[in-house]
Amino acid sequence: MTSALSPAAGPATERRRRGSVVWHLGALVVLAVVLYPVIWVAGAAVKPSKDIVGSLDLIPVEPVWSNFSGLADGISGISVGSFFVNSLTYAVLAVVGVVLSSSLTAYAFAKIRFAGRKLLFTLMIGTLLLPYHVLLIPQYVLFRHLGYIDTLVPLVAGKFLATEAFFVFLMMQFMRGLPKELDEAARLDGCGHLRTYWSIVLPLSRPALITSAIFTFINAWNDFMGPLIYLNSPSKYTVSLGLMMFRDQEGISNYGGMIAMSLVALLPVLAFFLAFQRHLIDGMATSGLKG
Question: Which residues lie across from 253 on neighbouring strands?
Answer without folding.
Answer: 247
